[in-house]
Amino acid sequence: MDSPVLDILIIGAGPIGLACGLEAKKAGYSYLIVEKGCLVNSLYKYPLNMTFFSTADRLEIGGIPFASIQPKPNRPEALEYYRRVTDSQALNVNLFEEVTALGESEGIYQITTSKSTYRAKHVIIAIGFYDVPNLLNIPGEGLPNVRHYYFDPHFYYKQKIVVIGANNSAADVALETYRKGADVTMVIREAELGRIKYWTKPDLENRIQEGSIKAYFQSHLTVIRENEVDVQTPAGLVTLPNDYVLAMTGYQPQFYLLEKFGITLSSDLRRHPFYNPDTMETNRKNVFLAGVICGGMDTHIWFIENSREHAVKIIRHIQAQTQAG
Fold first, then answer.
1. How many CB atoms lie within 10 A of CB 316?
2. How wide is the angle at C-alpha 231 spanned by C-alphas 190 and 201, nearest 5°?
3. How many CB atoms sit inside 10 A of residue 151's CB?
4. 62 φ, ψ to 5°?
5. ∠316-88-97 over CA atoms, to 5°?
6. 262 near 250, Cβ under 8 Å?
7. CA-CA-CA-CA torsion for 291, 293, 294, 296, nearest 10 degrees?
8. Alpha-carbon gap, residue 244 to 231, rounded angstroms
9. How far apart are CA 120 and CA 7, in angstroms?
10. Residues 10 and 126: beta-carbon distance below 8 Å
11. If residue 100 lies in a helix (H) or strand (E), which one and from where to where?
12. What backbone phi and psi angles, to 5 degrees, belong to 308?
């Protein structure tokens, strides 16, 4: 027998996917949120000691208060908040269930996952971009001492590490590992540090100036070997002894999934997905985008605080469609 037809199926149980579920439930729609990993999977992968740039009220969804000890919450507080939202609102969430295909027949979508098949009138894609790192594309990047994710500084005690990047993630990694006893060298393509939290940047600048953290600006890695790396600097090629490379080079959306689902992407390098900014509807009728995925490669456009409104736009549009006919 065919499965019942849901009003809405939401792909992704991050903060914005949960916000879409809250709005769908509030409007009385039948819905399901399907997530390939754990709840708020991207936030779970954040560094253990990470503090958000935003205040707690800017991370709230569905008008549900986010209580935090400090004005800017940390990772454990955020995980606790989104778990409590999910439980207190009894959201319908299936975890560790990956969506593999999106078909359509007579205006009804068929969503195939790793565990089941669902049918829905509307689909909301609210996936993030933390699962696909931007690669260096240099020899040795596949070695086990190269990491694109960072969790805890203790592991790097007394290790020689190279941190690649100039923004928040690289700054946090460099400072935390340095303070836990690592020998830290930063390799930065730009001539100066980039977008860094205002309470972190002076600290890093001072550590670089005093030489506690070494930094090569306008430089890049050319080769990674088991125990050393080559760095191209303005003064020439430098070989550094190395135990671990932490490539904090950013991440990108799952473009392959959008293409697989038939979502149009721009032909330029930014790869912006097509959607109507008033309704969030894509080129496929009744398929919507929500959250950071809307920015394509411009991953610094959309955050929790300014994309949670996508949920409201989408549900209002669906309600208007329903009322019209």
1. 14
2. 40
3. 13
4. 65, 20
5. 75
6. no
7. 150
8. 14
9. 5
10. yes
11. strand 99-105
12. -65, -25
Tens digit of each residue's pLDDT (9 = 90 or more) over 99-144? 999 999 999 999 999 999 999 999 999 998 878 899 999 999 999 9
Threshold 0.85, pTM exceeds: yes
Phi, psi of 10 (to 5 degrees): -110, 125
DSSP assignment, residue 4?
P
Percent residues over pLDDT 90 in the chain: 82
Separation between Cα atoms, residue 122 and residue 286, nearest integer Å: 5
pLDDT digits (tens, 9 = 90+) for 56-89: 999 999 999 999 998 899 999 999 999 999 999 9
Q: Which of 75, 245, 84, 42 is nearest to 160 (CA)?
A: 245
Which tokens in the block code for residue 40?
A: 């708020």
Written as one string, the DSSP assignment of 220-249 is EEEEE-SSEEEEEETTEEEEEE-SEEEE--
Any idea how long the chain is? Answer: 325
- For the chain, domains (ranges, CATH) are 5-132+251-324 (3.50.50.60), 146-247 (3.50.50.60)
DSSP letter, residue 272: P
The partner residues of 147 in beta bridges, in order of sequence, read 246
